[in-house]
Amino acid sequence: MNQDLLPIEFLDALPVPALHINKSGKIFYVSSNLTFVASDHQVHILDFVHPDDHGSVTAALGSLACGSPVTLEVRLNGAEAAERHAVLSFSNIGSGRNSTVLVQLTDISDQRAREKEIAFRESRWNNALVNSLSGVWDQNFVTGEMYGSDTWRAMRGLTPDEPIETDFDKWLELLHPDDREHTLYCIERQNAGDPAYVSFQYRERHKQGHWVWIECRGACVERDENGRPVRIVGTDMDVSERKASEHQMERISRHLKVALEASQVGVFEVDFEAGETTWDGRMYEMYSVDRSMPVKIGGLWESRVHPDDLGRVGDNVSNKIDKLQPFSEDYRIILPDGALRYIRARSLPFIDIDGSKKMIGVNWDVTADVLLRQELEREKALAEARNIDLEEARVSIEHNAMHDYLTDLPNRRCLDDVLGKRTADCSESQMGIAILHIDLDRFKQINDTLGHHTGDAILKHVADMLRDNLKPGDFAARIGGDEFVFLSPFYGNTSVIAALANRLIEELRKPVLYEGHECRFGASIGIACGIGPNLDYKQVLLNADIALYNAKKRGRNRCEFFSTDTQDWLINTKRVSDEILTALERDEFVPYYQLQFDAKTLDISGAETLARWNHPVEGILTPDKFLAIAEDLDAVAAIDGVILEKALADFRRWQTAGIPIPKVSVNVSARRLHDPGLMATLDGLHIQPGTLSFELLESIFLDDSDDITIHNMQKLRQLGIDIEIDDFGTGHASIIGLLRVNPSTLKVDRELVRLAPQSTEQRKLLSSIIDIGHSLGIKVVAEGVETAEHIRILQDIGCDSLQGYALCRPLPADQVGAFVATAGWREASRHRSRSTSAKAVGVVAPK
After folding, report:
1. Beta-strand runs (E) in 250-323
2. Which residues form the GGDEF domain (predicted)?
């Protein structure tokens, strides 16, 4: 037997379990007190050790050759030893070739389990504090020490290494003057242990200068022998956003209250579970009910509704409530004094947070409107009856076929017949014809604002005026809409024809009084003359149309004779049209970008994409050089598509290069948005949600959205594409139209921004637009920001983003990166971006 083997009695008597092994790890004996791990089948020390720790044990056995004891921590092996940890202490027994090794095992499993539990609890506590955005503080009045967590420091603008102000008086100076007295009282009550003051709020100045609302929760955790607080511990939370939201809600609530009072609308809420209805004061007033009277379902309201309307209204209400759909109703009510009133109601059923079914709605008295509409319907019926009588009086079918039904002037068919006959007469004589093509100016505005009946009256007035100016040989016709033709004999003297045209213009310039409205309009007249045996009246009529176009182009309310210059203009227009089509084929339309900036920080908030034509001869052309002709060509949608694809490609390159432009916006024509195939095109572009906006002109779109357009806008939002309203303030959109479109952004037109530094009224208007936008959750971007003063004013009134020459001019894609890298706009924003002379003449930068 090896002389270095230890006696069994010695091993069993050791205070800790032990193994007697040889230098390679083979086991000679396992002490009887090794009970926390199975030892029946282990023949080698590695049999006791988890496989992941075999390397450490083998290394320990090797290091024993140096003679020094070795200690290491391992995990033990076997299913019953799961999560078992032990410290192994290796010691040489004997010396020389026959030396052995004593391994003592100390079980530290309970210690490791406790450490793990403590670490887990500490992690859970830290995570809870971080996720709750609460900052922890601990103040010791004896030592004067004050601890603040990183979150506590961050909400005050302090870095983790900055010292905390522990001087109480100096800390008071950081509080808002209006909050100091209240805060001192709350601290006193909190230190006293008053449960009502466990939490209180106050404002503290941030390191950057602004005020931060703090919600403080604290409690005294240690007191001295006299009951005075020694140590206070608590948490602070930044509730500035919540306070701002509360302020905004209060402001909106005030606006709503004023709106309700001004419109005399009554508000009600129905609780179907409780069987009760809550009315505001206007509802009680509208229904002539004492305010102390409770309103039960199936009681008061039903007793007021006209019996002939109750069944219809009740069925509609029940149907909409079951489907939880908003609905409207018009019905009559009978007041206690027998008076009949007409009520209009708008209602919205909903499921409340507690799961009960409820309905909220409004009522307003429309009796005056109904009576007026009834009167108008009676007047309309009488007018229609008179028109029928007039139509029945027309006994000549030929007259009906050859004359305009409204003005009783000859129509286009009759005009062609007359021109044909006169052309034949001109071939037999030396007489010619002069054709005056007349188009009314401002007629559409009258028609749109005062109604078609007013427009019809104007057309009749013009017809009567033309009849009054007819001389022998003259002829007048209405050829459609607000267009007329006046024929006169022509003997070669154009001054006579010019005098006739000017006389007609003067007559048409006179205001017309209709239904209390003074209607002012005018006329543009195109003149073409022909004489001789080879006269072609169709060509003369076409020439008059060309001359009319020239008259309208040169300012309206004037006359112009046909000239070869006008014809040349048409030829040039055709040339440009052909070049536009070629430009699309050659990919000559390119995007330029005008960056937009956050009004508060002047960080880049986006980039508007502007279309430019890289003309091979004339260079870079802005849209005012080609857009009108492109619209006539119906090529705007194609140009929009090209610019969109290039903008998305540029944006992806910026992202790859790390250029901090968060999104781009592109101008989209109304016709493009009416395209049913728009969504299929966008689906193939793989647009990253939130990085693209479509800009739509308010003046042509906002209140004019059809079903296809609304559907396309809904799909755009599903694709993550925002809707922006461009040139807001230049059209006549209503708030209802704005809500219908529900854009993410309004872009205030540059004309509203331009005079803001000089005009208080203009600043008030801008502020109102911004308030309306923010109340609807819409961001506001100001265009035409040309000076540092513009920037200051727009920042003061709460504008969200700025765009204009004061910060950035339109740039090609390859110059955007360098411009962003230099950040030159921050310095440039402090100076005027335009010369005084440019401002004096009202220079407006083209898009």
Report:
1. 266-271, 276-279, 295-296
2. 431-564
| pLDDT for 731 | 59
Q: What is the pTM of this model?
A: 0.41
- CB of 230 within 8 A of CB of 140? yes
**Range 264-370 has CATH code 3.40.50.2000:** no
Q: b/e map of 110-137 (b: 16 or more CB within 10 Å)?
A: eebeeeeeeeeeeeeeeeebeeeebbbb
Report yes or no: 510 and 523 within 8 Å, Cβ to Cβ. no
Provide the greatest CA pair distance for the chain.
Answer: 154
Sign, Cα dihedral of 625, 630, 635, 641: positive
Question: What fold is seen in the domain 132-245?
Answer: Beta-Lactamase (3.30.450)
Residues 6+ apart with CB under 8 A from 766: 748, 752, 753, 756, 782, 793, 794, 797, 799
Q: How far is CA 589 from CA 274, 583, 638, 653, in A?
A: 66, 7, 10, 19
Specify the pairing of strand 664-667 against strand 692-697. Answer: parallel
Neighbours of 275 (CB within 10 A): 11
Closest listed residue to residue 588, CA positions, set 579, 596, 575, 601: 579
The token pair at 735 is 């708030």
**Angle 552-557-563 (CA atoms, 0-180°, nearest 5)?**
50
pLDDT tens-digit map of 502-537: 999 999 999 999 988 889 999 999 999 988 777 888
**If phi over 0 gives left and psi between -120 and 50 gives alpha, with beta otherwise, what is residue 408?**
left
Query: Taking the CB of residue 100, how many other CB atoms lie within 10 A of it?
Result: 19
Is the CATH number 3.30.70.270 carried by domain 394-560? yes
Q: What residues does 610 pair with on adjacent strands?
A: 592
Quote the CA–CA distance of 598 and 593 in Å, as a whole number: 16
Under 8 Å between Cβ of 748 and 798: no
Give pLDDT, residue 733.
57
- Cα 233 to the center of its chain, rounded Å: 44
Please, which contacts does 561-570 make with residues 24 or more away whose CB atoms are closer than 8 Å?
561/494, 561/498, 561/527, 561/528, 561/529, 562/526, 562/527, 562/528, 562/529, 570/546
Q: Taking Cα atoms as reference points, which of 454, 451, 446 lies closest to residue 514? A: 454
What is the CATH code of the structural domain delimited by 594-610+632-840? 3.20.20.450
Amino acid at 522: G
Q: Give residue 132's pLDDT.
A: 59
In terms of Cα–Cα distance, which of 687, 694, 689, 693 is closest to 670?
A: 694
pLDDT tens for each residue of 357-371: 899 999 989 998 899
Kind and range of the H or E element at 413? helix 412-428
* CB-side neighbour CA atoms (13 Å) of 141: 13
- For residue 838, the model assigns a pLDDT of 39
Judge if 132-245 and 594-610+632-840 fold alike in CATH terms: no
Amino acid at 265: V
519-536 burial, b at 16+ Cβ within 10 Å, e below that, comes to: bebbbbbbbbbbbeeebe
Q: Where are the domains of the chain?
A: 8-114, 132-245, 264-370, 394-560, 594-610+632-840
Low-confidence ranges of the chain (pLDDT < 70): 1-5, 39-40, 78-82, 122-132, 259-260, 262-263, 394-395, 427-429, 566-567, 670, 698-708, 730-737, 828, 830-847
| Cα(781)–Cα(800) distance, integer angstroms | 6
535, 433 in Cβ contact below 8 A?
yes
| Amino acid in the structure at residue 795 | Q
CA distances (Å), origin 241, targets 136, 203, 525: 20, 13, 63
CA 535/CA 529 separation, integer angstroms: 10
Cα-based distances in Å from 290 to 277, 280, 735, 839: 14, 12, 35, 63
Q: Specify the pairing of strand 134-140 against strand 100-107.
A: unpaired
